[in-house]
Design goal:
- Keywords: DNA-binding, Transcription, Transcription regulation.
- It comes from Kribbella kalugense.
- GO terms for molecular function: DNA-binding transcription factor activity; transcription cis-regulatory region binding.
- There is one protein chain.
- This protein has about 200 residues and is an all-alpha fold.
- The C terminus is likely disordered.
- It has two domains: about 50 residues, Arc Repressor Mutant, subunit A (Orthogonal Bundle), CATH 1.10.10; about 120 residues, Tetracycline Repressor, domain 2.
- The chain contains nine helices and no strands.
Length: about 200
């Protein structure tokens, strides 16, 4: 008698991410995941409760990946340089994993864990932003940077930049302007004042 098919949580998450990127969130069903890992539905339910559980596991993995990427990018000790590198690493991840990236912003209460994932992946960002913008402005500054990056990336993924020009140049331009504004609190940066010292 052949041995029953078995799977693992890691295989389920890997299959779910592949399905997500290849066919979109609507294709992420328990039946499709079971077929992808080569088991029947009952075997899958021995490992995960339901579709929401699977999505939560995927998002946990993504949070860990992003945390590692962002922490690795923040390698110089210079807040401006590190924040530029971190934001660009965030963009590279989003462009390489567009469907997974979109899923990161789900607010479905049946998935849960969003706050813990955000806290985990934001620690280094908030640390660098505190040095750049000050303790009182660290959180709103981090939110502004992420909101700008997310808006840009969302438009880029949608093919919404239709007027020509180099999108990478536009990214660098916008990122520089946002970081400079956050560093100076909206004032003219040091070294650019017209006042004599």
């Amino acid at each position: 008698m052949p041995a029953p098919a078995v799977t693992s949580e890691a295989a389920i998450v890997a299959s779910a991410r592949q399905l997500l990127e290849e066919r979109g969130a609507a294709a992420l069903t328990m039946r499709a995941i079971a077929a992808e890992v080569g088991v029947k539905g009952p075997s899958l339910y021995k490992r995960v409760r339901d579709r929401y559980h699977v999505i939560g596991l995927v998002l946990d993995q993504v949070a860990d990946e992003l945390t590692d990427l962002l922490d690795a990018a923040a390698s110089t000790g210079s807040p401006m340089t590190d924040l530029r590198a971190m934001t660009s690493a965030y963009r590279r991840f989003a462009l390489a994993n567009p469907a997974t990236y979109g899923l990161m912003f789900t607010s479905d209460p049946l998935i849960g864990g969003a706050e813990a994932r955000s806290q985990r992946s934001s620690t280094t960002l908030l640390d660098r932003m505190e040095v750049l913008a000050g303790a009182d402005d660290a959180l709103p500054s981090a939110r502004m940077l992420v909101a700008w990056a997310h808006g840009f990336i969302t438009m880029e993924l949608a093919g919404a930049f239709r007027l020509g020009g180099d999108v990478d140049v536009a990214w660098d331009f916008g990122l520089s302007r946002v970081l400079t504004a956050l560093a100076t609190g909206g004032h003219e940066p040091a070294g650019h004042s017209t006042r004599s010292s």
